[in-house]
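Lab manual, section 2.4: Encoding a predicted structure.

Procedure: take the sequence of the chain (228 residues), apply the prediction step described in section 2.3, and record the output as C-alpha cells. A sample record is shown.
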Amino acid sequence: MPVIDARDVYKTYEGSGVPVHAVNGISFAVEKGEFTAVIGPSGCGKTTLLNMVGGLDSITKGEIYIGGTQIDSMSEAELTDFRLKRIGFVFQAYNLIPVLTAKENIEFIMELQGIPADERAVRSRELLAEVGIADQADKRPGLMSGGQQQRVAVARALASKPEFVLADEPTANLDSHATSDLLDLMAEMNANSGVTFVFATHDQRVIDRARRVIALDDGKIVSDTNAG
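Recorded output:
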C-alpha cells in the first residue's frame, strides 16, 4: 500500500470569474522509503500539491489517501490530529518556536500527542543526537545557524514517527555547506531507517540527490522519472 496515493486531484481558484487550476488533475503514488523531489517553475503547483497531501490545504476535486486512509473528506479537527500523528513537515523558514530551546521545540510536538514527559525528554535528546546537534539541545533558535535550525526542524518532523516527511524548499535559506550536510543527513535517514521524504524544490542539489523526480508545469505532471 502506498504511503501517499493522490487520485485525479485538483485545486481550483475562482479568480476574476476565470477558474485557475493550481493543480490540474494530478495522480501519483509514493511508496515507503522513497526519496522523491517534486520540481518545476514558480507557480507550477508543487507547494500547493504538498500542502494538499499534507492536509494543510483543501482539494477542489479528487481523492488523497495516506497509508490507505482517505484524508480529503476529513473535518479540520480530524485533519489536525491526523497530521500530528502521521505526517512530518520541514519548511523553508524552519518554523521553530523562538522562545523554546531546540529540545523544547522537539518535545512540543510530542507533548501535543500526549507522550509522557520522561519519554519526551529521552526521545528529543536521541533525535538531536541523530541529526548531529546534541550539543545544541539547550539553545534557542536565534543562537543557532540556519543549518542547525533546519536540523532541529528535521528532528521535530521525526518526533511523531511519521509515515513520511514533506519538505518544502528545505534548503532555500541554507548555504552550500549547510545544504550538503542536510542532504547527507536526510539521505542517511532514508537509507538506514527507511524514512520516506518528498521534497518540493528548485534546488538542483536536492534534485541531483533524489531517486525519483516528478516535474510539474501548469499544475500537471509533465514527467516522472526514476534515477535508479
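Check your result against the sample. Residues 34-60+71-226 form a domain with the Rossmann fold fold (CATH 3.40.50.300).
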